[in-house]
Amino acid sequence: MTSVAGSNLPAFDQIRPEHAEPAIDAVLADNRAKLATLLASVDDSSSASWATLIEPLQDMAERLARAWGPVVHLFAVTSTADWRAAHNACLPKVTQYYVDTSQNAALFRAYVGLENGADIEQWPVGQQKTIRNAVRDFKLSGVSLPEAPRARFRAIGIRVPELEAKFQENVLDAVQAWSLDVADESLLAGMTAQARDGARAKARAHGTDGFRLTLDFPSYDAVISYADDRALRRTLYEAYATRASEEGPLGGLYDNGPLMEEILALRHEQAGLLGFANYAELSLATKMAKSTQEVERFLLDLSARARPRAALELDALQSLANERDGLTDLEIWDLPYYVEKLRERQLGFSEDELRPYFQAHEVIAGMFALVQRLYGIRIEQVTNVSTWHPDVTTYAVRDAAGAAIGLFYLDPYARENKRGGAWMDECVGRRRSPHADQDPACYLTCNFAAPLADQPALLSHREVVTLFHEFGHGLQHLLTRVDEPAVSGLRGVEWDAVELPSQFMENWCYDKDTLRTFGRHWKTGEILPEALLTKLKASRTFAAGLATLRQIEFALFDLRLHRDYDPRTKGWVLQTLSQTRRDVSLVHPPSYNRMPSSFAHIFGGGYAAGYYSYKWAEVLSADAFAAFEETGFAGETGPRFRDSILAQGGSRDAMDLFVAFRGRKPNVDALLRQSGLGAPK
Ligand code: ZN
User: Which of the residues are catalytic?
Assistant: First the structure.
C-alpha cells in the first residue's frame, strides 16, 4: 500500500516554470513512441486485452497527468507571468496530443475489439464502463469521420482550448487591472470593519494611503452588499459588470467579445461535423439529461415556481428602499444592498453578524469532524508534504483502522496572482492494478480573506457553504473505491450529476447541530447562540425566489446560446441574453451589462451547455439529504451514501447509483421544500 504522503505527490518546492515545457516535451515524445509500439503489438485486435492494451495506456496517461497536472495547478494558484508563459507554451502541445490520441483510428479499433469481445460481460463493472465510455468518446472526437472533416475537427479541437484559456486570462487581467483608491474613510460607511481593514492593507501594499477597492469577489461584495454610498456601489457595479468586455472603464482592453464569437462558432461547427444539430446536443450526449427539451422544460418549470416568490421579494426590496432611503427607482447596484437590509429586518440579523463566529480553522475542523462521523474516516494534518505556498496545509485521510485512503491540499486564502473563486481539482487519481497502487490526492482551493495581524481569518456563512461544497467534490475523489482510473472519483461521472456530492455537503451548513460544533465567537469563545442559529436556518429560503431565477437565467442562457446558435446572426450572445432575461428574469440590468464576458464556466471551462447541471444536481442533492432527514440522521445513512454514491465514482450510471441509494428515482419536492418554493403542484 502506498503511503499517502509518498512519492506520488508533486515536489512543489522544486517545480519551476522553466521545468514545465521540457518535461511535457519529454513525456509527450515518450508516450507517442510507446503508443506506436503498443499499437503494433496489438495489431491483430484479438490479441488486445485489458492487461496488454489498457494497463499500458493508463501508465502513459498517468505519466502525462503527473507532468501536466502540476503545471495547470501552479498556473491557477501562482499565476505569475512566468507560469502563464510556461502553461501557455505547453497547452497547445498537450491539447494536440489528446486530440491526436482521441482520433487514433487503430486505437479506436482496438477498443471496439474489446467492447465486442465475448467475455466483456464477465469483467468488473469499472473495466466495462471504462471501455464503453472510451468508445463513446472516440466517436464524439470524430474518429469515424472521413479524412477532411476529421482534420477540421482536430484543428478545432486544438483551437478551442486556446481560446478558452485566453478567455480566462482576460477575466483575470481585467479584474487585476482595475482598482479604486479612496482617501476618505467616510465614503466606506456601511462596509464592515474587516472589509475596510482589508482595503487599507491593499492600499498599503501598493505604497498608498487610504483604501483600495478591487474587483475580486470578496472586495466587490463588501461594497455592493454593504456600502451606504450609492454612487460608490454604482461605480463598482459598472466596473464589475463590464469586466473583460468592450464596455465600462476598461472597455476594449481585455475584451472577450471576439473570443466568445469564435468559440461558439467552432463548437457549433464541431457538433455539425459529428451529425448533431447543435453543440447543446453534443454536450448532452455524455450527460444524465436525455434531451435539450427535457433540460429547457426543467428550467422553465422551476422558473414558473420561483417567479411569484421572486416578484414578492422584489416588491419587498422596493418598499424597503423607498421607506428607508426614499428610493423610488431601485437599480441593480442597489439590490444586494437592500437584500442585506431586508434580511436584517425580516430575519433580525445581518450576514456579517455571523462572521465573528466562523473562524476558518474552527470551521475546517468542524467540517472534518462531520465527515469523520458520517463516513467513519479520519482526517489528520500532515506536515512532510511539499506545497507551493506557506498558507497551504495538507491532510491525510484514513479509514477507521488507520489505513491510508488519500490526501488533500487546502489553499484557503486569496492572494495576488491566484485565480479567483473556489474549486477542487485532482492531483492523483485512485488506481489499483498490477502496474500501480496509488491513492487519490486532490487540491481544495478557496479565496477567503486572509487573517489580519490581530485577527484570525473569519468566514461569511456563504464562504462556509463554499468550503463545504468544494470539500464534497474532494470527498467523491478521495473516498472512491473504484480501481480503474478512468472511472474512479469524479472521472466518468455524468457532468450533470457531478454537483451531487458537493451540493449535498452544503445542506450541513444549515443544520443546527453541525453549526454548533464549529460556530464559536473568535473573541469571546461563545457558541453560536440559539436565536442566531434559528435565524440562519430561516435565512436559507430568504430571497430564494430571486436567487433561483438568477441561476435559471444563467442556465437557460447557456443552453439556448449553444442550442439555437445561428452563425448568420450578428450579436448572437447579447441577443440570446436579452431574450432569456425577457423570458425568465424580473431584474433587468442596464444595457452595458456584459455578464457573458466573464462567464468563465461556459467560455473558459467545461460547463458549456451544461450550466443547468447545478440546478439539475440540486434536485439529486436535496433529495439525497432528505434521506438523512427522514431517518433522523441515523448512523447507517452516512455509510450507505458513501458506499452507494461516493465510492462508486463513474463506474455506473448516476441514475442507477441514485436509485440504489434512495430506492427510487429523484424527485424535485425536496429541492422546492428546501428553497421555500412551496409544495409541488
Ligand atoms: Zn461544484
Answer: 470
